[in-house]
Amino acid sequence: MRLLTWIFVCCLLAACQSDGAGRTDPSGSVAPVPPVMRNIVFFGNSLTAGYGLPPQQSFPALIQQKIDSLGLAWQCINAGVSGETTAGGLQRLPTVLGKRRPDVFVLELGANDGLRGIPVRETTQNLQRIIDGVRHQYPEAEIVLVGLEFPFDLSAFGGHRYARYAEEFQAQFRPLAEKNHLAFVPFLLQGVLGRRELNLPDGAHPNAAGYRIVAENVWQVLEPVLRRD
C-alpha cells in the first residue's frame, strides 16, 4: 500500500512540473517562453494623433507595422491629443504615465505653443518638466525628443520679429536633447513640409503618403534605441 501511495505522489509531481513554465509539446521538447512585450509611448499633439486620418495611418501605427514585420516585442501606444500645448501635456502626463509604463517615451510637443506665440523659454521649460517627470517615475525609460519647425514662413506676418521667433523656436530642441542626453529626431516633417501632395488641405498636417515619410524620419532614430534595449 505504501509503495502504491509513493508511486501516485511521484506521478502527481511530475504532472505538475510538466504543466508549469517548462511546458512540453507532444514531441517532448520544451516550448519557448514568449518574449515580454515592452511599451513605446508616443506623447504628442495632432501630428502624433494622426489628425484627419484613420488611426492606422498615423505614424505610431506605421511604426508598429515596421516593428511587427521585424518580429520585435514592442507595442506602440498613441498618446497624441490634437491641439495640445506643452502646458497641456505637462498636466496630462501623470494620467498617461499611470496607465502604461513607458520603456521608450517619444516626446513630440511644441508646435501649438509656436502657433499661439507662447514664449520659447516657456515651451522649453515645459518640455524639460515633462522629461523630468518621466525620468522621476520611470528612471530606466529611454526618451526620444522630436524636433519641430513652423509649417509656414512667419516673416510674411510681421517681418523680422516673427522670423526671429521662428528661428528661436526651431533652435530650442537640439540643445534640450543634448542637455538631457536624449535620442533626437531633428525634424519630424522633414521631406513633407511644404509639399502639397503630402499634406492635407490645411498644409500643416500630413496625409497618408506624408505620414509614411514621417514614420521613416522617426524610425531612423527610434530603431537603434529599440535594438539596444
Please tell me about this protein's structure.
With 229 residues, this protein is α/β, with parallel strands linked by helices. The protein has nine helices and five strands. It has helices at 2-18, 46-49, 59-70, 86-99, 111-115, 120-137, 160-171, 173-180, 208-228, and strands at residues 38-44, 74-80, 104-108, 142-146, 183-185. α3 (59-70) crosses α9 and α4 (86-99) runs parallel beside α6. The longest helix is centred in the last third of the chain and has 21 residues, at 208-228. The chain is globular.
Mean pLDDT: 86
Gyration radius over CA: 24 Å
Order of helices and strands: HEHHEHEHHEHHEH
- Residue windows where pLDDT falls under 50 for at least 5 positions: 1-24, 153-158
The proportion of residues in beta strands is 5-15%
Secondary structure category: alpha/beta
Sheet having the most strands: 5 strands, parallel
Beta-strand segment tally:
5
> Roughly how much helix do the residues carry, as a percent range?
40-55%
CA distance, first residue to last residue: 57 Å
Strand order of the largest sheet: 2-1-3-4-5
Helices, by number, come to 9
Q: What spatial form do the alpha-carbon principal axes imply?
A: globular
What attributes does this structure have?
9 helices; five-stranded parallel beta sheet; alpha/beta; globular; 229 residues
